[in-house]
């Protein structure tokens, strides 16, 4: 009787652990290599979209950039370029779930955690979507991924991030990646240089970048305008 009870408890705990597992956000080696290459081509943030397929929406197979203006603390995507990207993907037969639900951007510092502006952008631009993911990779390789579900009762969870080496993937193409970067990324003047902290900036240690990022994103410094609320147009609601 005691042995049967012990087995039942172990089985219950095993089922509970299985049910509580969070699904990972996975990247193919190609997508991961491209993302790191794009991150390291400049000193600013870089933003884009993860591209997946209907049969496996949490497997990022490619990272797509659109035209954008970037600083070490912000990314501002170009509205017409986003609209063109949506049209091109729809023409290929893809749905927004495959190309517009995983928002990816980089942080030039060591912290992958979202800033105030990141949270506001995620709320404003993806709040109407039935689900969306904010994925951030920092300079040192640290990652942060959060799934938000708006359908039904809704909810959020932080996801583990994995590189899926079991999937087939094309060969790396750094030349094409750099061409995409140069075609889409425009570097703006760093807003921190115009702040009251400017004269101290050059004397600050490397970790101060994240501190200044927090000041700027939380409204304690002047910075570039936020992303427009209609950035993704009506297609985001699809």
CATH superfamily: Cytidine Deaminase, domain 2
| Helical amount | 25-40%
Query: What name does CATH use for the topology?
Result: Cytidine Deaminase, domain 2
Give the biggest beta sheet. Answer: 6 strands, mixed
Q: On the 0-100 scale, what is the average pLDDT? A: 80
Instruction: Write the H/E string, N to C.
Output: HEHEEEEEHHEHEEEEHEHH
CATH class: Alpha Beta
CATH architecture: 3-Layer(aba) Sandwich
Number of strands: 12
Tell me the distance between the termini. Answer: 56 Å
SS class: alpha/beta
Spans of at least 5 consecutive residues whose pLDDT stays below 50 are 195-208, 215-238
The geometry reads as globular
How many helices? The count is 8
Radius of gyration: 20 Å
**Approximate strand percentage:** 15-25%
- Kindly report the spatial arrangement of strands forming the biggest sheet: 4-2-7-8-9-10
Instruction: Estimate nothing, just give the exact number of structural domains.
Output: 1
Helices and strands, with pairings:
Blueprint: H1 2-20, E1 25-27, H2 29-40, E2 47-51, E3 59-60, E4 62-65, E5 68-70, E6 75-77, H3 79-91, H4 96-99, E7 102-107, H5 116-126, E8 131-138, E9 143-149, E10 155-158, E11 161-163, H6 174-184, E12 185-187, H7 198-201, H8 208-217
Parallel strand pairs: 1-3, 1-11, 5-12, 7-8
Antiparallel strand pairs: 2-4, 2-7, 5-6, 8-9, 9-10
